[in-house]
């Protein structure tokens, strides 16, 4: 009994001696990320989101990134099950599970990834939320990557040359694009692209310019065939475990909601613009690499293909009870007027 009293006394003394706030340590959220640490979203985006979270909560909530907790297609379920607290998902990895998200991926929008991401979130609130495609998790942000371009070891300078190629396609609208261009689609997640191209299992890939650095495509896909405005855009979401969010104090939940939504979406899109620009510069400096821009004739030819893709996606999204045309028109208007 005397020993127990002594022990408790020492514990109490130690607690008193702790620095202010140490006894009330910050909540640390676990971020699951499936791309390599060098990828711009891990090197740039997540640190910015963490900084925004810490600032909003006065340091009471923070986060750290952990890798290889699950493959890319399993990230949604990982968060829903509570094996991690936050992640980012590419909607195209789960075909059929996400349909309304394809609306932002359509070719033909004018604007960068930041503009697209802000417009995406606003369109979600106004039109797309009713599809309830993120049921079971807390939706933190929606964003796009920059324009998707064809990257291959063989130099492609004409749209017609894509026919018959084996292309890694990420899903979503990129899969529709490949099909209408006459390419054979190969489905592997982004972290497997390098080895897929290096082994010649695919002739090329449709990805944004960030991949030139993030996935070392300057080594295995030395030539870019660039369609102004892109062949498509990719749709992503940042999601959080709902129970983890609910477990936070009311004050911290309120603080996080000043970060979640449009602010986080904007931050993610802005980072993608930065890393796409880095990808272009890396390509220009890499030995044996080239960027070949589509001719006016090819732009017009792809415009006709894009019209078919838009019509098909509009039908899919409309079947979810969404006014797809109104939503797409809203996105186009928000993007074209962004920043003005």
Question: Short summary of the structure?
Answer:
The protein has 13 helices and eleven strands. With 340 residues, it is α/β, with parallel strands linked by helices. Residues 1-23 have low confidence and may be disordered.
User: What is the terminal-to-terminal distance?
Assistant: 74 Å
Number of discrete helical segments: 13
| DSSP strand count | 11
Number of domains: 2
How would you classify the helix and strand content by structural class? alpha/beta
Instruction: Give, in order, the helices and strands.
Output: HEHEHEHEEEHEHEHHEEHHHEHH
Question: Architecture of the largest domain, according to CATH?
Answer: 3-Layer(aba) Sandwich
What name goes with the CATH superfamily of the largest domain? Bacterial extracellular solute-binding protein, family 7
What can you see in these coordinates?
The longest helix has 24 residues, at 262-285. The protein folds into two domains: 27-145 and 234-275, Bacterial extracellular solute-binding protein, family 7 (D-Maltodextrin-Binding Protein, domain 2); 149-232 and 286-336, D-Maltodextrin-Binding Protein, domain 2 (3-Layer(aba) Sandwich). It starts with a helix and ends with a helix. It has helices spanning 2-17, 40-56, 75-80, 113-126, 173-180, 193-198, 211-214, 217-220, 242-247, 250-256, 262-285, 296-318, 324-336, and strands at residues 27-33, 61-67, 86-90, 137-144, 149-152, 166-168, 184-186, 204-207, 223-226, 235-241, 290-293. It is of the alpha/beta class and 340 residues long. Residues 1-23 have low confidence and may be disordered. The chain is built from 13 helices and eleven strands.
């Amino acid at each position: 009994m005397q020993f127990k009293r002594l022990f408790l006394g020492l514990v109490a003394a130690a607690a008193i001696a702790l620095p202010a706030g140490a006894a009330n340590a910050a909540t640390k959220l676990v971020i699951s990320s499936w791309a390599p640490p060098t990828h711009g979203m891990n090197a740039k985006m997540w640190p910015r989101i963490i900084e925004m979270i810490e600032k909003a909560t006065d340091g009471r909530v923070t986060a750290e990134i952990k890798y290889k907790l699950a493959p890319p297609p399993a990230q949604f379920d990982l968060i829903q099950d509570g094996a991690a607290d936050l992640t980012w998902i590419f909607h195209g990895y789960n075909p059929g599970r996400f349909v309304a998200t394809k609306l932002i991926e359509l070719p033909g929008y004018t604007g960068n990834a930041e503009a697209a991401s802000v417009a995406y979130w606003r369109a979600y609130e106004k039109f797309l939320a009713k599809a309830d495609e993120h049921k079971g998790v807390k939706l933190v942000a929606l964003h796009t990557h920059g324009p998707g371009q064809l990257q291959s070891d063989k130099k492609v300078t004409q749209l017609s040359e894509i026919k018959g190629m084996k292309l890694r396609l990420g899903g979503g609208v990129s899969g529709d694009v490949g099909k209408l261009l006459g390419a054979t689609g190969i489905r592997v997640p982004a972290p497997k692209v390098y080895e897929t191209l290096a082994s010649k299992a695919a002739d090329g890939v449709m990805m944004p310019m960030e991949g030139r650095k993030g996935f070392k495509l300057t080594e295995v896909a030395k030539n870019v065939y660039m369609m102004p405005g892109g062949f498509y855009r990719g749709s992503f979401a940042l999601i959080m475990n709902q129970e983890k969010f609910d477990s936070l104090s009311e004050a911290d939940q309120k603080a996080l909601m000043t970060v979640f939504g449009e602010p986080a979406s904007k931050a993610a899109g802005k980072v993608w613009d930065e890393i796409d620009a880095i990808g272009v510069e890396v390509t220009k400096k890499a030995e044996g690499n080239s960027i070949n821009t589509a001719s006016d004739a090819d732009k017009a030819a792809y415009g006709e293909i894009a019209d078919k893709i838009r019509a098909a996606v509009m039908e899919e999204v409309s079947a979810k009870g969404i006014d797809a045309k109104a939503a797409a028109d809203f996105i186009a208007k928000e993007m074209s007027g962004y920043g003005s």
